[in-house]
């Protein structure tokens, strides 16, 4: 009986551990299997959390170096201690992973260490070193996440040619860093190392960065990052990357002119996306279906082709975001408990934690045009926001897209200071089906950056006050 559970969750990342806690809260006997040796998944161990720690620390260093003297905060002898910075980051990660273990104990979730393999629709076998233990479960949730992808012929060695994992732990600041891929990972990691002193070049296959982002925001984003010193080579296809003595040589070809170029650097970060991680789970033997991209197919209730086996997070369709996985984890736990768990995929915010931050929720202009939906645009620049102005953080704007007929908010796109936090208000507004008028009539505290949201809502009907 000890090894019998109502729910076994395979994977202890943000999707899996949240699902396990919610299932236990609902009275289900729950276990979570994790092979990494620490809970929290990619996000906590080698993703969101360590990168946000380094983004925060590198920004403090950069501000001290570039801004403080001119702002009357004078000092001499500023220097970087990368070792100390990395220790601080590692400590933050450790504290948070231990925090999840505590939450498991508090909620009565059994933490099973090892690699979980599906043996039948009710049997999970966990391998830990030489040991093999069998468990029975009425319901199984696959939450095994994703792994970095690479390009043909490029071997990530995590030394000189790295994924985000290696780029979070360089021993020294690389003099020349080449980043393949101008997406979320490339630009966050590029910002960190550029602030710490690297010369950063981003090679991007498309002729714009951050595909999927509202194009006006993406263009502004590139302009701001260029002003900060990051170099972009768009429309370029990387053909090979080679380790040559202590350096790395990257060969690439311009998609339009077909001109070939070669660039030498100290480190290369490959950030061209991630793929679902389902290796060794035994899915095909059980007949669990995957789509052409290797994502597990699920129905609206997040059930796989086997009714009592569910899948959530990066292994299924949708954006590979920790908070999307968490929502799905909660929904599945509630569905298993007989409740009406549900995820609103139209309102999943996305944030790039650069400086300034970029944040969005809902439809982009491009998506609305493609869907033939008539919309109005309200825009307000941070240059006209008093708080941003006194803080010398005037880059960027807030843009609200609302339905032309109903005034319902369809999408919000922001680039600017604190927008990663400000987007929560817009997600809430959209969950409540708010109109732009609702936002315009909501009192926003002065002086705050959030006034830019109210002003953008007013701008929909050309009645912004400060611009
Ligand atoms: P991504 O999909 O965001 O960006 C990859 C970029 O690489 C794209 O711009 C793509 O056009 C480019 N690319 C593809 N092949 C290329 C080639 N051969 N040469 C040059 N460029 C090429 O993927 P990324 O940045 O690796 O992130 C992976 C996942 O992790 C994403 O789903 C992202 O949403 C998530 N993530 C989210 C973060 C956040 O929420 N702040 C932070 C980091 C990652």
Which ligands occur here?
A: 1,4-dihydronicotinamide adenine dinucleotide
When the domains are counted, the total is 3
Count of DSSP-assigned helices: 14
Query: For this structure, what is the CATH homologous superfamily of the largest domain?
Result: FAD/NAD(P)-binding domain
Oligomer: single chain
CATH architecture of the largest domain: 3-Layer(bba) Sandwich
Shape: globular
Strand residue percentage? 25-35%
> Mean pLDDT, nearest integer?
97
CATH topology of the largest domain: FAD/NAD(P)-binding domain
Structure description:
The chain has 467 residues and is α/β, with parallel strands linked by helices. It has three domains: 4-148 and 275-343, FAD/NAD(P)-binding domain (3-Layer(bba) Sandwich), CATH 3.50.50.60; 161-272, FAD/NAD(P)-binding domain, CATH 3.50.50.60; 347-459, FAD/NAD-linked reductase, C-terminal dimerisation domain (Enolase-like, domain 1). The protein has helices at 14-25, 41-46, 48-66, 82-107, 164-167, 184-195, 215-227, 283-286, 322-336, 365-370, 386-390, 419-431, 436-440, 451-459, and strands at 4-10, 30-34, 110-113, 115-120, 123-128, 131-142, 146-148, 161-162, 176-180, 199-203, 231-233, 236-244, 247-254, 260-265, 267-270, 274-276, 309-311, 350-352, 357-362, 375-381, 397-403, 409-416. The strands form five sheets. Strands 1, 2, 3, 4, 5, 6 and 17 form a seven-stranded mixed sheet that branches. The protein has a five-stranded parallel sheet with strand order 8-15-9-10-11. Strands 18-19-22-21-20 form a five-stranded antiparallel sheet, with helices on both faces. Helix 7 links the parallel strand 10 and strand 11 (231-233). It is globular. The mean pLDDT is 97. The structure holds 1,4-dihydronicotinamide adenine dinucleotide. 1,4-dihydronicotinamide adenine dinucleotide is lined by residues 151, 180-186, 188, 203-206, 211, 237-238, 271-274, 319-321, 351-353. 1,4-dihydronicotinamide adenine dinucleotide (NAI) is lined by residues 151, 180-186, 188, 203-206, 211, 237-238, 271-274, 319-321, 351-353.
């Amino acid at each position: 009986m000890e090894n019998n559970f109502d729910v076994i969750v395979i994977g202890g990342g943000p999707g899996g551990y949240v699902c396990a806690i919610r299932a236990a809260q609902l009275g289900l006997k729950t276990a979570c299997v994790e092979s990494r040796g620490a809970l929290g998944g990619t996000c906590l161990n080698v993703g969101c959390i360590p990168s946000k720690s380094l983004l925060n620390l590198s920004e403090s260093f950069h501000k001290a170096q570039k801004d403080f003297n001119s702002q009357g905060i004078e000092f001499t002898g500023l220097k970087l201690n990368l070792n100390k910075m990395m220790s601080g980051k590692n400590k933050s990660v450790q504290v948070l992973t231990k925090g999840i273990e505590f939450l498991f104990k508090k909620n009565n979730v059994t933490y099973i260490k090892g690699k979980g393999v599906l043996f039948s629709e009710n049997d999970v076998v966990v391998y830990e070193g030489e040991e093999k233990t069998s468990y029975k479960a009425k319901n199984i949730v696959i939450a095994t996440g994703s792994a970095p992808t690479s390009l043909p012929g490029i071997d990530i060695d995590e030394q000189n040619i790295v994924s985000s994992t290696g780029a979070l732990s360089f021993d020294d600041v690389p003099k020349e860093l080449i980043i393949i891929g101008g997406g979320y990972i490339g630009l966050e990691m590029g910002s960190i190392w550029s602030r710490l002193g690297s010369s950063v070049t981003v090679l991007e296959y498309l002729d714009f960065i951050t595909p999927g982002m509202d194009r006006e925001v993406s263009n502004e984003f590139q302009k701001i990052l260029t002003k900060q010193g990051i170099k972009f080579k768009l429309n370029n296809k990387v053909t090979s990357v080679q380790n040559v003595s202590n350096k790395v040589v990257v060969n690439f070809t311009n998609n339009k002119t077909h001109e070939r170029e070669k660039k030498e650097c100290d480190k290369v970060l490959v950030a061209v996306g991630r793929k679902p991680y389902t290796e060794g789970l035994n899915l095909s033997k059980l007949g669990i279906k995957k789509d052409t991209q290797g994502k597990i197919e699920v129905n609206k209730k997040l059930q796989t082709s086997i009714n009592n086996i569910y899948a959530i997070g990066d292994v299924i369709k949708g954006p590979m975001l920790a908070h999307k996985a968490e929502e799905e984890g909660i929904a599945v736990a509630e569905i298993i408990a007989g409740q009406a768990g549900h995820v609103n995929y139209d309102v999943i915010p996305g944030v790039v934690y650069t400086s300034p931050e970029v944040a969005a929720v809902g439809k982009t202009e491009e998506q609305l045009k493609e869907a033939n939906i008539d919309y109005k645009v309200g825009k307000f620049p941070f240059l006209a926001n008093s708080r941003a102005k006194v803080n010398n953080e005037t880059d960027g704007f807030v843009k609200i897209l609302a339905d032309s007929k109903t005034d319902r908010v369809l999408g919000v796109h922001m680039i600017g200071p604190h927008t990663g936090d400000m987007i929560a208000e817009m997600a809430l507004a959209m969950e409540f089906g708010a109109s732009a008028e609702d936002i315009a009539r909501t009192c926003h505290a002065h002086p705050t950056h959030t006034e830019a949201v109210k002003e953008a809502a007013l701008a929909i009907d050309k009645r912004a006050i400060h611009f």
